[in-house]
Design goal:
The complex is a heterodimer of chains A (79) and B (268). Chain A is mostly helical. In chain A, 81% of the residues lie in helices and 0% in strands. Chain B has 6 helices and 11 strands. Chain B has 268 residues and is α/β, with parallel strands linked by helices. The chains are: A mainly alpha (79), B alpha/beta (268). Chain B: It comes from Tuber aestivum.
Amino acid sequence: MSLRYEVKRIYRDLLYLGREYPLGYDYFRPRCHQAFMSQAGETDPEKVREGIQQAEYVKKEIEALYRLKKYRALKQSYG
Amino acid sequence: MTSLRILVPIKRVIDYAIKPRVNATKTAVMTSGVKMSMNPFDELSIEESVRLRERNGDAVQDILAFSAGPAKAADTLRTAMAMGADRALLVELDEKRPEEIDLEPLAVAKLLREVVRQEGCNMVICGKQSIDDDSGQTGQMLAGLLGWGQATQAAKVEVQGSEVVVTKEVDGGEEVVRVKLPAVVTTDLRLNEPWGFPISCQRRYATLPNIMKAKKKPMEKKTLADFNVEFRKRLETVEVVEPPPRQGGGKVDSVDGLISRLKELGAI
């Protein structure tokens, strides 16, 4: 029950982050959705936890991507 | 250690990723229908004040985010609170009155002086400049008006007792300044980013759950009339123009061609 909630939470977080994805939300959302749907039948709690771990990793990567993009743009303008 | 009450002034500006367009009368940059977000240098200020709290614990009593801008600047302040500010103060400017909107740096500094006095702040951390006007004056003027010390373009901030030690990046090395509290600090690009490499450290992003939580934090709203400050315009914008398009470079066929071209330009 709580795992189900956790998966939904990370999915929502990712979608929220995806709004600012450089290639656009329309690029991000279907891919994110597909990535989750491909694992939808997973019932082993251990595997689900692994999936959540992976989603957390992707989330961190996206945040880092945004930070780096902003940093580079600013560095170009302000040195 | 002296307990800190930190004021972080924030400006809502055109998003850094947007290419600004000049309006038809060449008096300003078009802002309608353009994505707006928090000035990136102000994000660094918020981040640094939250980190000061993490490093120094309860010594940081209060982190107040302040903004003077249109009603929508409230969203920017919510973001600031999602990133870790405790509360926010918005001075709402009337968009229909041209003398109110687009406050000049001096007017903002005077406004901040009043806020500092009313709220009893003893440290102001502001961005070194905003990416729309690029004046880079507010922090310095505020320090002058308050009679406080200032440390500008901080790349590292440490509080030691009743002093702040600030490291700045200068040509060919680092400059370290020591300033007594109360003080004004302005942030440079690589603050919170040791080794100049941003991925290496985790900067917090205003995540969805944090934004929801920030809705419960207090936000006070005031108007310019609540402050006994003169906001007369002192500067006149003569013209706003886009930068000239870049001149393309030329290609040379051979080494001889390159040498003769360089000689032509007087480079060798």
